[in-house]
Amino acid sequence: MRKLIQFLLLLTIGALAGCWTRQPSRHSQADTQTAPLVAAESSKREQQGQGMFADNDRRGFGGGGGGGGRENPRDPQLAQVSFADAASAQAITQATDRKIIKNADLSIEVDAPKEAQARIASIAEGHGGFVVTSEFKQSGSGASKPTETVTIVVRVPSSQFGAAVDAIRGSGNRIIQEKISGQDVTEEYIDLEARIRTQKALEGQFLEIMKQARKVEDALEVQRQLADVRTEIERLEGRRRFLDNRSSLSTITVTLQTAVPIVTATTSGFGHDVKDAFGDGVDTAVGIVLGVIRAAIILVPIAILIVLPAWLILRRFLRRLSWPRRQEPLAVTPAE
Fold first, then answer.
1. Among the residues of the chain, which ranges form H helices?
2. pLDDT attached to residue 152
3. What pLDDT does residue 85 have?
4. How many CB atoms lie within 10 A of CB 175?
5. First to last CA, the chain
6. Contact, 149 vs 112, CB < 8 A?
7. Which of 33, 108, 242, 245 gives 172 a disulfide partner, CB atoms 3.0 to 4.6 angstroms apart?
8. What pLDDT does 321 receive?
């Protein structure tokens, strides 16, 4: 029995020793397996770094000619300069791609509105634009000279907006009113593009689901969802086209009008006061006469249509009533 127990103890100790000796071998095997991968990755990174440094050398980081005057491409100052140049280039690109709706409203005093209208139309066409609407209006009559007003709306490319406004300013005698406004819609435009991409991706997913649909109910449900998505895409694309049109072409509204004549009148003196008093008396008399005429015109229909029929009805009604008659006292003659 003791020998059997000793044999089992020896066997257990031997098994533990074998396990202890196998663990280092496993770690060493794992190290031997991962070592080539690490070495390959490090060599790949070094090659990429050398390629980047070579590109920087070709672009001019360092001195020209031989290698003696070349600066170290790993200098942090050069890296900061390159990052600053990249940031400025990105800012310029974003500034040029901004969507800005520009509008201008001008009121100009001219001698001949018709001629100025033709000049503004030629200015718009010369800057790559066109005339949208043109309206002519004439006010005033009698002995005074009538006032002519022309309203013209032109659209020009946004890049020619400033030059066109400057040319229109010089087409008249005096600027009465000027208003220039700009609306930045870049954020809305970018949001529209992102939403359109999302909706188109959703449309593609619905198309794939429709291909895999086995039941008619599933196909109809997917088709309904697909119609809603396409409607939303059309709405977003319409808004994007509107922003493109308004930002690419600026609107200029010009009002051309002639100078208003200034009339001066003397308002002092005895004769002027008598004339004003006589005019006021005539105006008062005319007002009284007109008031009487208006009252008669108003009261005659009322008398004919309301008062006369009411009086006739009342008269007839009163005739039908039987009023009690008073009994006269009888005269008694005394007997003789």
1. 2-59, 76-96, 113-126, 161-169, 186-212, 216-248, 270-302, 308-320
2. 94
3. 54
4. 13
5. 195
6. no
7. 108
8. 73
**Closest to 54 (Cα-Cα) out of 73, 80, 81, 70:** 73
- Residues of the chain with pLDDT below 50 are 19-81, 83, 89, 91-93, 95-96, 336
**Token output for 222:** 């997917």
Sign of CA dihedral 168, 169, 172, 178: positive
Which tokens go with 266? 């003397």
What does the pLDDT read at residue 157?
A: 94
CA atoms of 128 and 164, how far apart (whole Å): 10
Whole-number Cα distances in Å, 224 to 8, 195, 210, 215: 77, 20, 11, 14
pLDDT (tens digit per residue) in 210-265:
888 888 888 899 889 999 999 999 999 999 999 999 999 999 999 998 886 655 55
Q: Distance between CA 21 and CA 12 in Å, rounded?
A: 15
- Smallest Cα–Cα separation from 255: which of 171, 159, 158, 166? 171
Q: Which of 204, 199, 195, 201 is nearest to 228 (CA)?
A: 199
Tens digit of pLDDT for each residue in 263-293? 555 556 677 777 888 888 888 999 999 988 9
The model carries a pTM of 0.49
Residue type, 279: G
Backbone angles phi, psi at 172, to 5 degrees: -130, 180
Nearest Cα to Cα of residue 120 among 95, 155, 70 = 155
Rounded Cα gap, residues 156 and 186, in angstroms: 20
Tokens of 141: 């009559």
The count of residues in the chain is 336
Taking alpha carbons only, the member of 206, 235, 234, 199 closest to residue 221 is 206
Q: Is the dihedral of CA 77, 82, 83, 85 positive or negative?
A: positive
| Residue 244 structure tokens | 């493109």
Q: What is the pLDDT of residue 10?
A: 62
> What pLDDT is stored for residue 300 in this prediction?
84
Q: String of b and e for 273-289 (b: at least 16 CB within 10 Å)?
A: eeeeeeeeeeeeeeeee
